[in-house]
Amino acid sequence: MAKKRVKAIVKIQIPAGAATPAPPVGTALGPHGVAIMDFCKAYNAATEAQRGTIVPVEITIFEDRSFTFITKTPPTPVLIRDAVGIAKGATSPGKDQAGVLTQEQLTAIAETKLPDLNANDLDAARLQVAGTARSMGIKVAD
């Protein structure tokens, strides 16, 4: 059997379990001729357990207009905001402090994100998550 030829790879971030044909899904997939409702149904079924969070998805579109998709872990800032319990980071990250991230929370987020990070081990992942927290104006507790 011949391999299908890839036409495009599309990356978008959609709320889990709540994909609709409206933008950003429709505008991202429409030009490629993908059946948008088929994607929405498959994505919503795959992410129903994570409802309420943003889940990035990488959609591979083939020349025959079929598709496959891979869901990724939620973005690091979303996980940090949920752990700290805030709606957004500090308005002036270098001066203001929006919250405090404990070492336990830092480790839990790093373990969650490890498959999607370009880190070799948990310590490197923890450093990346801590850097993201600092850039959001969130203090990382010692």
UniProtKB/TrEMBL annotation:
InterPro entries in the cross-refs: Ribosomal_uL11, Ribosomal_uL11_bac-typ, Ribosomal_uL11_C, Ribosomal_uL11_C_sf, Ribosomal_uL11_N, Ribosomal_uL11_N_sf
An example of a Gene Ontology BP annotation on this entry?
Answer: translation
The family database entries (Pfam families) matched by this protein are listed as: Ribosomal_L11, Ribosomal_L11_N
Please name the GO terms that the record assigns under molecular function.
large ribosomal subunit rRNA binding; structural constituent of ribosome
Which part of the chain is the Large ribosomal subunit protein uL11 N-terminal domain? 10-67
Q: Fill in the PTM field for this protein.
A: One or more lysine residues are methylated.
Keyword Ribosomal protein set for record? yes
Q: Which residues form the Large ribosomal subunit protein uL11 C-terminal domain?
A: 72-140
> Which GO cellular component terms, listed alphabetically, does the Swiss-Prot or TrEMBL entry include?
cytosolic large ribosomal subunit
Leader sequence range is none
Q: Which UniProt keywords apply?
A: Methylation, Ribonucleoprotein, Ribosomal protein, RNA-binding, rRNA-binding
Q: How does it assemble?
A: Part of the ribosomal stalk of the 50S ribosomal subunit. Interacts with L10 and the large rRNA to form the base of the stalk. L10 forms an elongated spine to which L12 dimers bind in a sequential fashion forming a multimeric L10(L12)X complex.
Biological role? Forms part of the ribosomal stalk which helps the ribosome interact with GTP-bound translation factors.
Which family does the record claim for this protein? Belongs to the universal ribosomal protein uL11 family.
For this entry, the protein name equals Large ribosomal subunit protein uL11
Q: Which organism is it from?
A: uncultured Acidimicrobiales bacterium
Its lineage reads: Bacteria, Bacillati, Actinomycetota, Acidimicrobiia, Acidimicrobiales
Gene that specifies this protein: rplK
